């Protein structure tokens, strides 16, 4: 077989593998940043007079985990206006 064909097939396989691992990595990073920000918001909120601004339960953890920083911002806005 021709080495060019092997190269093209290798690039296609590499592209597919990178696409498959990009989504879980993005979810993982969003989750890490979301949870860190969730605890940071609660810590800073306690310092300025809002103790336990966002309760840490499975719903807020899922929102912070899947949506990351925008999810925590939505939780804070929701909590402040409720």
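^ structure tokens above, recovered residues below v
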């Amino acid at each position: 077989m021709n080495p060019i064909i092997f190269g093209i097939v290798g690039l296609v396989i590499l592209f597919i593998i990178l696409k498959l691992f990009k989504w879980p990595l993005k979810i993982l990073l969003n989750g890490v940043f979301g949870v860190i920000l969730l605890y940071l918001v609660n810590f800073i909120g306690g310092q300025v007079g809002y103790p336990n601004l966002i309760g840490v339960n499975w719903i807020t953890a899922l929102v912070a985990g899947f949506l990351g920083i925008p999810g925590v911002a939505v939780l804070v806005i929701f909590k402040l206006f409720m």
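Residues 3 and 44 are 59 Å apart (CA to CA).
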